[in-house]
Amino acid sequence: MNLAFATATELVELYRRKQASPVDAVRACLAQIARHDPQLGAFVFRDDDAALAAARESHARWQRGAPLGALDGVPVTIKDLVLTRGAPTLRGSRTIDAAGPWTIDAPATARLREAGAIILGKTTTPEMGWKAVTDSPLTGVARNPWDASRTPGGSSGGAAIAAATGMGALHVGTDGGGSIRVPSSFCGIFGLKPSFGRVPAWPLSPTGTVAHLGPMTRSVHDAALMMNAITRPDARDWHALPYDARDYREGLDEGIAGARIAWSPRLGRFDVEHDVDTITRDALRAFADAGARVEDVDPPLPDVHAIFRVHWWIGCYNAVRGIAPEKRAPMDRGLLRIADEARNLDVDDYLDAVAARAAFGSAMRAFHQRYDFLVTPAVAVAPFTAGTLAPEALGSVGSDWTTWASFSYPFNLTQQPAATVPCGFTASGLPIGLQIVGAMHDDRGVLRAARAFERARPWQASYARFAPA
Q1: Reduced to 3 states, what is the DSSP secondary structure of residue 425?
Q2: Residue tagged active-site, from 21, 79, 156, 195
């Protein structure tokens, strides 16, 4: 077995049986980084010596039969928006001093470290995480592992690249408008945006209560295992939900027979590329075959584009307002543009958007009284040219990322759990994802539905192309 592509679950079992070492696993992942990262751009920071030193400590614990936790020795990465002790958090920006000091772990980082996970490094993001593709003035253009001329999506693009290519087993992503689900779709991995507050976060994102943290992995089981760690409480997050100590792996294989699924291929209003439509419609059959009751129905969707733009534009303004004008020259022009546009919004615009968001959230709560899950395409388009903000020939899909990523951010507004599962490939070999949305707080249900799909349409064999011959 190539340890770089072993799941976290498999690695821990190999360590327990003394059939592999965390040192071997970290070295395998570092070999994958050396093989793929120069071309793809997944990492902004690495400390290979520190990772190997931590792996040796983990190996000693396993030899004594005293692992720190269920993730001891598992290689992980942290997105460059999430604080990490001993590593700079530069947010994809040249305006932040890499010298730090960097002495604090964010809650997710702290929980992984406490469980014994080995941090390989920080993964790339667009500046301040502002868009759904991954390029930045700091790190340049990240590229899709399936076709390096295409974007991996964003803003957790580095994490998605790393997951697909064996540069770690578990990856922390953030999602304020699709930033876990879009790159998971574009890179052919599993990604979960949990219910808001399920994974403690500190400090709060500049974009506020639309921003979530969650796992990006190569399997649903690994995401459930990771949730056991990162959902543990942290008093610094006053938005956090009450801690639920149940194992997220419990009931994962119970299936979805009898579940009520609403299938909405366009959310009632959005255009979708032909390949995306064809592949996701075919994938939908897996739910019916698993015993779910599937009905074509659209949720009560308002003008979510207008609502989200107000929240997101103001959030981006919040992200840059503390940066002195004379230091903004190296910043992403698109980020500065929308931050400047946010100045044209007034209090009435904001209050109207807040009220519309609340009404939409209430409507979705009522919708999920009738349906357990809403299933949609994850993204309206297939991966497009790297270094651009939108496909060249969008037609009616639009030219702004908030238009082509229109299936994701509605559920940041409502704060519901939503996951992306790989569901197929275009004729040119580009991954396509399917989105599963659950009722607020039903993170376990979303994982169970995703696992049912994974069992019916397993995707792990596709990663073999990234392993050495």
Answers
A1: strand
A2: 79
Homologous superfamily of 3-466: Amidase signature (AS) domain (3.90.1300.10)
Q: What average pLDDT does the structure give for the chain?
A: 97
156 has catalytic annotation: no
Catalytic residue among 21, 93, 136, 155: 155
CA–CA separation, 436 and 450 (whole Å): 7
Please pick, among 93, 179, 185, 406, the residue that the annotation labels catalytic. 179
- Going 95 to 45 to 198 to 236, the CA torsion angle's sign is negative
Q: pLDDT per residue over 249-298, tens digit each?
A: 999 999 999 999 999 999 999 999 999 999 999 999 999 999 999 999 99
Among this protein's residues, is 149 annotated catalytic? Answer: no
b/e burial code for range 302-338 (CB count within 10 A of at least 16 → b): eebbebbbbbbbbbbbbbbeebeeeeeeebbebbbeb
Average pLDDT of the segment spanning 192-204? 98
184 counts as catalytic: no
Where are the domains positioned within the chain?
3-466
Cα distance between residue 130 and residue 20, in whole Å = 40
Q: Which of 95, 148, 92, 89 is nearest to 387 (CA)?
A: 148
